[in-house]
Amino acid sequence: MLSKKIEAALNAQIEIESMSSQTYLAMASWAETQGLSGTAAFLYRHSDEERMHALKLIKFVNERGGHAMVPALKQPQKNYKDTTDIFRSLLEHETHVTSTINQVVDTCLKEKDYTTHNFMQWYVSEQIEEEALARTLIDKLKLIGGDKGGLYLFDRDLQGLTTAEADGAEGKA
Ligand code: FEO
Predict the structure, then answer these.
(1) How far is the CA of 58 from the centre of ligand 1 (A)?
(2) What is the pLDDT of residues 20-62, one digit of tens each?
């Protein structure tokens, strides 16, 4: 059974993961309107993954005798300056998510809830991967600078990465 404190911490994290999904969905939509189809595909998929992160928490809370709350969400940012603006914003958002996950882990230790602590380790690992990927993409964009041909190839690479990830996920299922 979850303590009220842990239940509240997990419900707060559900809201953050849901907001991540909405934010990346808005980024995907903006990218699509700019003809950045690879970037859009990558972000649509990322949005789906964040929804899965929220869903995994919802199911855990309910399985452990709590009540998972579906949050009301604010409208995310609608427009972006360019691709670099998107990925900088994504990294900033993920860094924030990492700190909130660390806070949940810390609360688990204080409350001696080792089951939830164990469950949260999946999120800790996921954050390492997500932050690393965002940093790699920002580094690539720095190298490209304002070169249009380079940006075209970057967008195409993201399409390839998204297709490869989708194939990998199907292979795992
Ligand atoms: Fe689910 Fe990207 O944090």
Answers:
(1) 14
(2) 999 999 999 999 999 999 999 999 999 999 999 999 999 999 9
- In angstroms, the CA 121 to CA 134 distance is 20
Its pTM stands at: 0.94
Quick check: 115 and 66 in contact, CB under 8 A? Answer: no
Residues 6+ apart with CB under 8 A from 21: 47, 48, 50, 51, 53, 54
Other Cβ atoms within 10 Å of 124 Cβ, number: 14
pLDDT tens column, 55-89? 999 999 999 999 999 999 999 999 999 999 999 99
3-state secondary structure of 113: coil
Q: What are phi and psi of 171, to 5 degrees?
A: -65, -35
Ligand 1 atom with the shortest distance to the CA of 123: 1
Q: Which domains does the chain have, with CATH numbers?
A: 4-165 (1.20.1260.10)
Q: How far apart are CA 59 and CA 18, in angstroms?
A: 14
User: Does residue 141 line the site of ligand 1, with CB under 6 A?
Assistant: no
